[in-house]
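Duplicate of #3305? Posting structure anyway:
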């Protein structure tokens, strides 16, 4: 039985993961962490350092500011860490990279296997359609804090790997000039209870190609997080991503 500490347990993703775990036979949540303590099917603490239960992996969907405590706890208890939190800045990423030298760390800004495939397709399209303009449009619910989404940046970063000169443009409202070929436009929409949609538009002369991924339920992301948890508990210390998980599924 894989025992999980769920960080961000009272959030939307935390609740969805907890719901899915109830139907799983090989995995259970032994404790959660959130800003308010709560007793329920598993205890939720306001600090991860209050948890004394033995766990096999930490799964995090919370806030980037939690990364420092998560890394400290994971290192002191030698527990693998799965991070699905978005909006990570460079110093957060460095903390995770440093922690991965001692414990296995899995990081993905989107836990959907479908999104990973979308990223691969977008990168291949950018390589083939080298003279096409690229625009990325993402739509999420009105409670999402970070913009653009982590997945939009994943898509843009993958495209920039094959278009080294690419520059990200987040707003053209203050520009009075023609679009440059090197631009990758990234646009964010926040409305209602949209779960998540990402559209990559390749605009060429007389033709347009779009690659779109739509999530209609957070269960897709929660299932991916549980796959990541099962994957990471069997790994040696190191920094792992969705590419490593997908590779393991194909072997």
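Output from current build:
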């Amino acid at each position: 039985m894989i025992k999980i500490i769920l960080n961000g347990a009272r959030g939307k993703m935390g609740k969805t993961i907890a719901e899915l775990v109830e139907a799983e036979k090989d995995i259970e949540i032994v404790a959660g962490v959130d800003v308010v303590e709560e007793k329920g099917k598993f205890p939720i603490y306001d600090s991860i350092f209050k948890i004394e239960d033995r766990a096999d992996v930490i799964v995090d969907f919370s806030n980037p500011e939690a990364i420092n405590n998560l890394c400290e706890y994971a290192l002191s208890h030698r527990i693998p860490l799965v991070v699905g939190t978005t909006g990570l800045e460079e110093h957060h990423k460095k903390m995770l990279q440093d922690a991965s030298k001692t414990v296995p760390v899995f990081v993905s800004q989107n836990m959907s296997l479908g999104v990973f495939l979308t990223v691969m397709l977008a990168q291949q399209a950018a390589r083939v359609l080298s003279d096409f303009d690229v625009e990325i449009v993402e739509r999420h619910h009105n409670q999402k804090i970070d913009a653009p989404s982590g997945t939009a940046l994943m898509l843009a970063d993958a495209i920039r790997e094959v278009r080294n000169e690419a520059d990200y443009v987040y707003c053209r409202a203050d520009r009075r000039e023609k679009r440059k070929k090197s631009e990758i436009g990234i646009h964010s929409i926040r409305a209602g209870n949209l779960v998540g949609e990402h559209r990559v538009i390749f605009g060429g002369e007389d033709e347009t190609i779009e690659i779109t991924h739509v999530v209609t339920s957070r269960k897709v992301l929660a299932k991916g997080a549980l796959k990541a948890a099962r994957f990471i508990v069997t790994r040696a210390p190191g920094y792992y991503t969705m590419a490593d998980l997908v590779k393991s599924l194909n072997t």
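Confirmed duplicate; merging threads. The mean pLDDT is 94. The first strand starts at residue 2 and ends at 7.
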